[in-house]
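Before a colleague's protein record goes any further, I have to sign it off. My question to you is simply how this chain folds and whether the C-alpha cells agree. I do not need a full report, just your reasoning and any doubts. This is what I was given:
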Amino acid sequence: MTPVSNSTATTPDTASFAALGVPPRLVKVLTAGGITAPFPIQADTLPDSLSGRDVLGRGKTGSGKTLAFAIPMVARLAEGTTAGAGRPRGLILAPTRELATQITAVVQPMAAALGLTVTTIFGGVPQGRQASALRGGVDIVVACPGRLEDLMRQRLVRLDRVEISVLDEADHMADLGFLPGVTRILTATPTGGQRLLFSATLDNGVDKLVKRFLDQPVMHSVDEATSHVSAMTHHIFEVSGQDSKKGVVFALASGRGRRILFMRTKHQARKLAKQLTDAGIPSVDLHGNLSQGARDRNLLAFSSGKARVLVATDVAARGVHVDDVELVVHVDPPTEHKAYLHRSGRTARAGSAGDVVTLTLPEQRRDMSQLLRKAAIKATPIKVTSDSEQLKALVGEPADLVAPPAVSNVPNRTAKAPGSSRSGGSRRPARPTANGSAPYEGRGRGQSARSEGGRAENGRSRGHTGGGGSRRTSTTSRTGSAR
C-alpha cells in the first residue's frame, strides 16, 4: 500500500450535509434525528469517504466519528446488490460490545431508510440469534473481533463480498491485544474494497495496519491524540487519607446531574455502587463480571436517569457513550495517561461542557504529576475535604435523597450481638459528613488490588442474546451520542 497523504482541502464551518455530498434520503434521516450540521471530523472526511477513498481519521472520543463512517457506508451499499446468506457487504469492527451496540443504534435508522439490514455480533452471549441473522442475509455487520472469528471458523459468515470495512478505535483494539485477529479478518475481505480506519493514535501496531490495508489513504486529524476538549475542566483534589476520601467521594456523587465514578477493581465498583444507593444516591455498576442482561439494565437505568451515578471500571472508558455526563471522577487514579484521557472522555461530549476530578493521596503526588504531563493536562492540586468550598461549588445543589429499594424476606443482617451499642433496623439515607461518616470504604488490608483486565466482548452471560435479528437491533444505549 502507498503512504498516507494529508488532506489540504478546507471545509467551511457552515457546510451542510447536503453540500458535502450526503444523499438526500440520508439528510432527511439526520434532520429527523435533530442532526443538521456536521462536526469537524464529519465535514473533513465525508467528501473523501463518499467518493470512495480510503480514510485514516484521527480524533478523540466524542468528536462525531461514528457518523463520519456510518454515512459513507450506508450511502455506498444503498447503490449495490442484495446481500447473500452469511455474506455481508459492509463490516464495522469495534473493540467492545457496548460500542458495537451503540454503533448499530446509529447505523440502523439510516440503513433502514435505504432498505439495508444491520446486525450486531459480539461474544459473551449465545450465538444462535446472531447466526440466524447471518443466514437470513444481512447487509452490514457490526462486530467485535473474537466472536466474528468464531463464526468465520464455523463457516457461518464469509467476508469475500465486503465492499467497505471500518475499523473503529483501532488504538483500543491494540491495547486489548486484538490486532492479530483484526489482521486475519481484514485479510479475508477483498483487497479492492474501501477501508476507513479511526484511531486516536498510530502506535502499538496501528501504523502497520494502515500501511498494510489502506490504499493511498487520506488522513484527517481533527485534533492531536493527547488533546482534551476545551470545554472540559480538570481538577486534582488531594485528600489527607482514606477517611477524608470517603466523604469527598459521596459529596461528589450527590449532585443532580449524571456522573461516572471510575474504580480500579470490579469488587470496589460493585461495593461503592451499593453503598451509594444505600445512602440515598441511586447508582449502578458496570464491570466485566456482569452478564449482558445486567449490563444492559444498568446502562438503561443510567441513561434514562433512574440512576444518576455509574460506578465503572475501565471496561466502560471506551464502550459507554451517554450524553450529558457532567462529571467524571477518578476515584482510583489510572496508571497511565491514555486511560486518563479515555475515562475523561465520557464528559464534555458533542460540544457540551464537563468536569473531571481526580482524587489523590499524598503518596500519589509524583505519579499523578507524571501522568498529567504525559496527558498534556495542566491542573494544580488542591487539598479538599467534603465541606470545602471548591467541592461545594463544583457539585452545586445536592439532589434529593432516594430511599433504597426495600428488600423483603431477608433476615436483618445489621443486627448486633447482645451488648452492642448499634442495633439493626431500617436504614435511612444520610448525607456524608466532613469526618467521613459516609458508608464508602477505601481499600481494606486484605483486599486484592488486582485491576480488571482487558475484558471487552467476552463476558459471562446467560440467556440474553443481544445481537438481534437482521432488522432488530439492541437500542439499550441509544441515548448515547449519535454524532
Q: What stands out?
A: The two ends are 30 Å apart (CA to CA).
